C-alpha cells in the first residue's frame, strides 16, 4: 500500500468484473490490482460512474470481434472522483483535484475504486455539481455536442429534431441544441413528456403517434438518438443542405452516404471523440448552470447487476449512476 499526498493507494481494489460475455449475471464483484499508470496518465480514486448503452452491449459481447476478450474486463467509461496519482508528464492536474471525464482504455475500466486515463480524459469538476451528477455527463454530453455542432453543423435559428429525447444523450442534445441557438423539437414517449419538457424544447411529439415524422415541418437537423428511423425515412423532411445523424449505425449507412450528392442532404454516424476542449466547455456550462444533468437512479456497486438490468429496460430518463465504495 502506498500513500501519496494523503491519498492512500492499496495494492488491490474492489471492482465489478466480467470473465465471460452474457447477461447482467456475468458481472461479479472482485478484488483486482490497482491499475499502473504511465507518464501521461492519471490515477483516479473513483467516487461514482455512470452506465452508457455501450457498457451493457460490450458486456453482452457485441464488440468482441473488434475489441477481443481480454478477461478479466472491468467495464465502464464515465467516471468522477479525486486524482490519486499523476504521471511525470501531467501538467494540469495534481493529487487531490476533483475531476470527471471519460476513460480512453479499450473496455473502459471505470467500475472500480481506481481507474486510469490520459490527461485529455479529464476536466476539473465544478463545485456546484455532485460526484454523482459529474459521473453522468461525459460520454453522453460529448456525443450530443459533437453530433450537433461538428457532424450536423447546427447553427442559430436552425430547426432540430431530437428523436429519443428522454435518454442520456437525448436530454443533453435538447439543452445543447438550445445553447447553440436552434429551435428544438423533442420526440419521446408520452410517459417522458413531463421530464423532456422540463428542458424547455419548443415542441414535444409522442413517438407513438403514427408516422409522426411525415407530419412535422421541414427541419435542418434530425438527430436520431433512438436509432429508430433511417436516413431514407426522414429524407423528405430535411431541408436542402440538412443533416441526419445517427448514434446507432445501420448496415445501409454506407449506401445512404452514396446518396448524399444526389439528394442534397447529409448523413452522419456519430462516434464520440476524446477532446479536452470539449470537456472544458461542458464543465463551464455546468458551472454556469446552462447545462443540467438528470440522474434517474443511483445504485451501489454491489448492485451492479440490477443497475444493468434497469439500463436495458428502456425506461431510463437521463442517466443511471453507480456509487463506488470508499
* Percent of sequence in beta strands: 25-35%
Q: Architecture of the largest domain in CATH?
A: Alpha-Beta Complex
Radius of gyration: 20 Å
> What is the CA-CA span between the terminal residues?
15 Å
Shape: globular
**CATH domain class name of the largest domain:** Alpha Beta
Helical content (DSSP H or I, runs of 4+): 25-40%
- Tally of DSSP β-strands: 17
CATH superfamily membership of the largest domain, which one?
Answer: Medium-chain alcohol dehydrogenases, catalytic domain
Order of helices and strands: EEEEEHHEEEEHHEHEHEHEHEHEHEHE
- Structural category: alpha/beta
Number of domains: 2
Mean pLDDT: 94
Biggest sheet statistics:
7 strands, mixed
Q: Point out poorly predicted stretches.
A: none
Write the layout of secondary structure elements.
Blueprint: E1 2-4, E2 7-9, E3 12-17, E4 28-33, E5 41-51, H1 53-60, H2 64-67, E6 78-86, E7 98-102, E8 114-118, E9 122-124, H3 131-135, H4 138-151, E10 159-163, H5 168-179, E11 183-188, H6 193-197, E12 203-206, H7 212-215, E13 219-224, H8 231-234, E14 238-246, H9 253-263, E15 266-269, H10 276-287, E16 295-300, H11 304-311, E17 319-323
Parallel strand pairs: 10-11, 10-13, 11-12, 13-14, 14-15, 16-17
Antiparallel strand pairs: 1-2, 3-4, 5-6, 5-8, 5-17, 6-7, 7-9
Amino acid at each position: 500500500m502506498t500513500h501519496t499526498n494523503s491519498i492512500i493507494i492499496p495494492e488491490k481494489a474492489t471492482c465489478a468484473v466480467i470473465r465471460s460475455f452474457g447477461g447482467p449475471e456475468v458481472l461479479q464483484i472482485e478484488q483486482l490490482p490497482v491499475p499502473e499508470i504511465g507518464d501521461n496518465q492519471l490515477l483516479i480514486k473513483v467516487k461514482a460512474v455512470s452506465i452508457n448503452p455501450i457498457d451493457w452491449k460490450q458486456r453482452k459481447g457485441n464488440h468482441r470481434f473488434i475489441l477481443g476478450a481480454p478477461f478479466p474486463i472491468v467495464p465502464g467509461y464515465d467516471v468522477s472522483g479525486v486524482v490519486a496519482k499523476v504521471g511525470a508528464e501531467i501538467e494540469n492536474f495534481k493529487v487531490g483535484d476533483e475531476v470527471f471525464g471519460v476513460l480512453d482504455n479499450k473496455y473502459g475500466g471505470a467500475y472500480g475504486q481506481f481507474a486510469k486515463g490520459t490527461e485529455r480524459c479529464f476536466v476539473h469538476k465544478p463545485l456546484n455539481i455532485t460526484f454523482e451528477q459529474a459521473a453522468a455527463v461525459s460520454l453522453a454530453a460529448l456525443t450530443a455536442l459533437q453530433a450537433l455542432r461538428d457532424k450536423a453543423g447546427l447553427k442559430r435559428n436552425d430547426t432540430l429534431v431530437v428523436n429519443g429525447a428522454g435518454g442520456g444523450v437525448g436530454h443533453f442534445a435538447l439543452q445543447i441544441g438550445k445553447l447553440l441557438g436552434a429551435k428544438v423539437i423533442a420526440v419521446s414517449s408520452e410517459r417522458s413528456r413531463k421530464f423532456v419538457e422540463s428542458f424547455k424544447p419548443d415542441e414535444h411529439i409522442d413517438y407513438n403517434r403514427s408516422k409522426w415524422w411525415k407530419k412535422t415541418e421541414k427541419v435542418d437537423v434530425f438527430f436520431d438518438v433512438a436509432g429508430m428511423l433511417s436516413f431514407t425515412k426522414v429524407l423528405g423532411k430535411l431541408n436542402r443542405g440538412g443533416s441526419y445523424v445517427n448514434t446507432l449505425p445501420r448496415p445501409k449507412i454506407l449506401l445512404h452516404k452514396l446518396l448524399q450528392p444526389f439528394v442534397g442532404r447529409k448523413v452522419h454516424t456519430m462516434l464520440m471523440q476524446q477532446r479536452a476542449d470539449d470537456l472544458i466547455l461542458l464543465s463551464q456550462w455546468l458551472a454556469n448552470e446552462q447545462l443540467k444533468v438528470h440522474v434517474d437512479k443511483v445504485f451501489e456497486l454491489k448492485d451492479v447487476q440490477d443497475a444493468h438490468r434497469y439500463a436495458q429496460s428502456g425506461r431510463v430518463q437521463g442517466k443511471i449512476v453507480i456509487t463506488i465504495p470508499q
